[in-house]
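Standup notes
- DV: blocked on the single-chain target, sequence here:
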Amino acid sequence: MSPMAADLVRTIDDPVNPLISNLLDGLDALEGLDFSENRKTCPYGLITSEKQLELLVNENRLHPEVFGLKNYEFQLAGTINYGPIRFRNDTTQSEGLRDDLIRQLMGRVRVGLGLRGKDIFWVATTEYGYENRIHTHFLVGIAGRALVPTAALTQATDRAFTSLSAHFNESQLGTLHLNKVTNPLGAISYLCKEEYRRPMKHFIFSKTII
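- DV (later): unblocked, structure below
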């Protein structure tokens, strides 16, 4: 039991009160998630249980889409930091461009690996950052993942992103950062995190997830 939970126990006259029991269970479920001052940030890499997901959604720290993604074995996490201004605007038109880019990217990854449409699953979302630096996070995985190692998926994604510059008539689209997923619940939590003063979040799903 966490020190916070132990302190509560010492101040409660009726330890079998169900409301108190639920509170203590919640505190213990979040033990190990050392939130920073005022609990404003969350160490997503430490999230390892569905109970933690539930509590963080209830605290409005994660969007509920996390529940629909928790059973998918994503292999690769990516972040696109856009270069051209038309991809970085906070407009409906720019959102459409970003949607088109991620769909084109995943389509080229699939073709490059010789996969069928039902063999690949992915999800992406737009984030705005503290300085309104719009970027896209995405997660991607392959059904029957043993047939496509993560290294091959990484190479295919990198090649596909580079090839998209010509499609959009740009010399370059920005930077792409790719990382192997080692903690699936942490990865989907990071993707589904709430942004300050932005209660709505735009998600894009592959047809294999929808």
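- Follow-up: The two ends are 39 Å apart (CA to CA).
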